[in-house]
Amino acid sequence: MAFKIIASQCTQCGACEFECPSGAIKFKGESYVVEPQKCTECEGAFETQQCASVCPVPKTCIPA
Amino acid sequence: MSAPVISVESLTGRLSDQLLASADSGGCASSSCGSSTRPDDVDPAIWDKIKDHPCFSEEAHHYFARMHVAVAPACNVQCNYCNRKYDCANESRPGVVSEKLTPDQAVRKVIAVANEVPQLSVLGIAGPGDACYDWEKTKATFERVARQIPDVKLCVSTNGLALPDHVDELADMNVDHVTITINMVDPEVGAKIYPWIFHDHRRYVGIQAARILHERQMLGLEMLSARGILTKINSVMIPGVNDQHLIEVNKLVKQRGAFLHNVMPLISDPAHGTHYGLTGQRGPNAMEMKALQDRLEGGAKLMRHCRQCRADAVGLLGEDRGQEFTLDQIPSELTYDASKRETYRELVADERRDHLAARSEAIGMVKIASSGKSLLVAVATKGGGRVNEHFGHAKEFQVYEASPTGINFVGHRKVEQYCLGGWGENATLDGVIAALEGIDFVLCAKIGHCPKDQLADAGIRATDAYGHDYIETAIGAIYAAESGVPALTATA
Ligand code: SF4
Ligand code: SF4
Ligand code: SF4
């Protein structure tokens, strides 16, 4: 149960890192990545996955 | 390569000469003495706020430096002229940055710069991303810097969408300069510039997005004005999209208390991967920019000395020493040493008083010479308000207009440095001459025969006769000569 970021589409706006309630998104080396152990799919915090709803590029934050 | 700054040492040398000179004349011969601690056209209460801020005061930009730290990468708006993904070390444009920093790293960098760059007076957070949206990081950085270096001014640049949420905290933290980028006041125009915004946990597109952004920008501006925080409005001039519309923008922001309006040319290049770059939207040329700025005169006061710095720029406007202060060059333990900044400030206070007196004298003279003519003069300078850069070393020229209304700064022209390692490249010189289109005179500290002749062939007169004089004094002398009036004798 986790989300992931498709690096080739990500514009690196950083918005997802900032909105993620679990602190699961970090800028690592070249791109933003989701740490699967930390991602809760926003369960209990929000109705929708915050990374996917803030991300400007469709289909960039998707279920892993 | 040595950085083009005025060093404390060179300033000291020059100052002692001047002190001797003025001692002979009794120290105070100028008629404008006493009123000359600020430019004549600035309100005293406001002068106090802007006198050390290079972006808010054209006069201050000769003496003081700013630095930006990129701590707030997250953004809630997409602009068609921005692409946060690509970062190229060889280009300079706002929003582009090579190093994203944590607040702790940023504080270390500010201390390192404050220890080495005595001109530093302003710390700004200006992207990539939005300082007000990514607020926690902005706030943490400001709080820590204010604790360690209390006399550095803090300022933020924002797209305005999240601004109303943080105006009170900005006021509490003594942030007294805010820049808002406002490119439209009509959502129809806005929809062509902004593909989407993210607000209140939701994404909006089209006219609705532009309307929300517009309303939040106006609200933020009004809230800042009500608290006496000075605002600068940045507008990107996009030919065919908002160029005519900016006249309306200027009017509306002035009504809401904006202090300065800064119109910047769109930078678009397919290599930047921005929407405008990829769709071939062009930017305006120097003469189109000036024409629009001239039409805006009389509205909100215009800023014409903006250099569209990178979001991690360090140094005087027009220079960027950012590469000297990358994280890997900064020790992990650092203590702030105020000595260089303090010495510099004392020296500058005197130099500036002298410069302001010389300036108002030169302007007064140009006004009475009243030939009705107007001259565009390009000046090579490395700071301090003087003609002190070699023609071949200049990476930009500051452009002044001398006319019956006085001597006014009207902008700058970027050029490719013509002389590298002692040799001038002819192809580069052609480029420099093209960039100087419309200029009547070039003033510099030194120029060789060959470039001088080629400039003359292009109808541009160049001289190094005024090397190291104050810019206005030199321009005044040229204007007087052109008008057939005897020139002022040098004041210092
Ligand atoms: S789904 Fe939620 S918890 Fe997981 S990475 Fe995205 S925002 Fe964070
Ligand atoms: S929100 Fe989307 S585009 Fe922005 S950094 Fe995260 S994954 Fe990349
Ligand atoms: S981009 Fe413009 S406003 Fe910002 S620091 Fe540079 S000159 Fe000042």
TrEMBL record, chain A:
Question: One Pfam family, short name please?
Answer: Fer4_10
Can you tell me which residues the record assigns to a coiled coil? none
User: What residues does the 4Fe-4S ferredoxin-type domain cover?
Assistant: 1-30
What keywords were assigned to this record? Iron, Iron-sulfur, Metal-binding
Q: Does the keyword Iron apply?
A: yes
Is-annotated flag, keyword Metal-binding? yes
Highest taxon listed in the record's lineage: Bacteria
Annotated protein name in UniProt: 4Fe-4S binding protein
From TrEMBL, chain B:
The Radical SAM core domain, residue ranges: 61-310
InterPro entries under this entry?
A: Aldolase_TIM, Di-Nase_FeMo-co_biosynth, DiNase_FeMo-co_biosyn_sf, MoaA_NifB_PqqE_Fe-S-bd_CS, Nase_CF_NifB, NifB_C, rSAM, rSAM_sf
Q: Which domain of life is it from?
A: Bacteria
Task: Report the protein's function.
Answer: Involved in the biosynthesis of the iron-molybdenum cofactor (FeMo-co or M-cluster) found in the dinitrogenase enzyme of the nitrogenase complex in nitrogen-fixing microorganisms. NifB catalyzes the crucial step of radical SAM-dependent carbide insertion that occurs concomitant with the insertion of a 9th sulfur and the rearrangement/coupling of two [4Fe-4S] clusters into a [8Fe-9S-C] cluster, the precursor to the M-cluster.
Q: What is the lineage of its organism?
A: Bacteria, Pseudomonadati, Pseudomonadota, Alphaproteobacteria, Hyphomicrobiales
Among NCBIfam families, the record links this protein to: nifB
Q: Which family does it belong to?
A: Belongs to the radical SAM superfamily. NifB family.
Tell me its cofactors. Answer: [4Fe-4S] cluster
UniProt pathway annotation: Cofactor biosynthesis; Fe-Mo cofactor biosynthesis
Per the UniProt record, one Pfam family is Nitro_FeMo-Co
Enumerate the UniProt keywords alphabetically.
Answer: 4Fe-4S, Iron, Iron-sulfur, Lyase, Metal-binding, Nitrogen fixation, S-adenosyl-L-methionine
- State the signal peptide span: none
What is the protein name given in its UniProt record? Answer: FeMo cofactor biosynthesis protein NifB
